[in-house]
Structure formats: C-alpha cells, structure tokens
Amino acid sequence: MKWITRKNIKVDRVACPWLIRRFVDPQAEFLFVEENELLAAAERENAIPFDAPRLAEIKLNHRGPRCSFEAIIEDYQLKAPGLDRLGLIVRAADVKGQEQVAPRRNRLAGRRPRFCCQRAL
C-alpha cells in the first residue's frame, strides 16, 4: 500500500513511517509531497494520507494535543509493549507545548543527528 504525507521531515513524519512499516504494513511505500498537493496526490496514487494537521479531511492526523503517531496506534489498535510511551516521546518532541508529557525528551532533542548534506543550524 502507498502512504502519503507532507514533505520536509519532522519528528512525527519520521516516526510514523517506522510505525507503519513495523506494525501495520511491512510493504508500505511512502510518498512526500507539498502540503497543498497532498489530497489530490493521495487520490491519484490511491495512497493513505497522514500527518497534515492543517487538512481536516485527513483521518490519521494530530488529534487535540496528540500527534499522528498516536492516531495510528489508536486507529490500528496497536498494543506492542512500549508503543504508548514511544507515542508520548514523539508527541513531546513534535508538538509545541507538549514537552512535559515526556520530560526525558528534552535530552534527546538536543542531540539530533547531522547528515552529510544538512547545514548546521
């Protein structure tokens, strides 16, 4: 199955494909497009859209303070040990104002890896 989200990777958009491949769809193919092209591209590609909070039509999305990673856990009824805790860590790292749900996240956020083609911030 194809899955589609916005381009420009952030925490939730990295964590969701891992979750999907690991627990939902091991053969998943991921597409990343401009946000304003997401709905049309999802229809054209017959892809499942996820993580686009400004698009209310997308079901696998932020819900209140919760992130898309948590929406996937909920909708697919995933019960693996540690997934709920991992969801809190993803939320704390991704959603502004939710840092308190996983206090240890603050130590991780300062250690983002740099890739060869990534400029130092």
Helix/sheet category: alpha/beta
| Major β-sheet annotation | 3 strands, parallel
Spatial order of the strands in the main sheet?
2-1-3
- Unreliable segments of 5+ consecutive residues: 111-121
- Proportion of beta-strand residues: 5-15%
| Overall 3D form | globular
Q: What is the residue-mean pLDDT, rounded to a whole number?
A: 88
Assembly state: single chain
Distance between the termini: 35 Å
| Alpha-carbon Rg, integer | 15 Å
- What's the β-strand tally? 3
Order of helices and strands: EHEHEHHH
Secondary structure tally, helices: 5
- Residue share in helix: 25-40%
Description:
The chain has 121 residues and is α/β, with parallel strands linked by helices. It is 39% helix and 11% strand. It has five helices and three strands; from the N terminus they run E-H-E-H-E-H-H-H. The protein has helices at residues 11-24, 38-45, 68-75, 83-94, 105-109; strands at 2-6, 29-33, 47-49. The protein has a three-stranded parallel β-sheet, with helices on one face. Helix 1 (11-24) runs parallel beside helix 3 (68-75). 30% of the residues are buried. Residues 111-121 have low confidence and may be disordered.
